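Hi all, long-time lurker, first post. I run a small reading group and we've been trying to get comfortable going from sequence to structure in the token notation. Rather than ask abstract questions, I figured I'd post a concrete chain and ask someone more experienced to write out its structure so we can walk through it together at our next meeting. Sequence below, copied exactly:
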Amino acid sequence: MQNQYLDRLEAETIYIFREAYNKVSPLGMLWSMGKDSNALLWMARKAFFGKVPFPLIQLETGMELPEVYEFRDNLVRDWQLDLCIQ
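-- Answer (accepted) --
Happy to help. Here is the structure in token form:
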């Protein structure tokens, strides 16, 4: 039962990503690098077969640990993300 519920949520999330991409221009996604936005980023990659077709926007505070910036930079490089830092 639990897997069916999670499968449905995943399918709905993918549907929403694809609909937004087709109907909203320009489209971008805020990315805080926290657990929730990382889960959303994972779903965006899944919705578009591994390639996120819109930019990610990070609001820079300069208050993150060096390891967080390293994590961010590695994901941007490895997943070929378009990152706008504001």
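A couple of things your group might point at:
The helical segments are 2-23, 35-47, 66-78.
The two ends are 42 Å apart (CA to CA).
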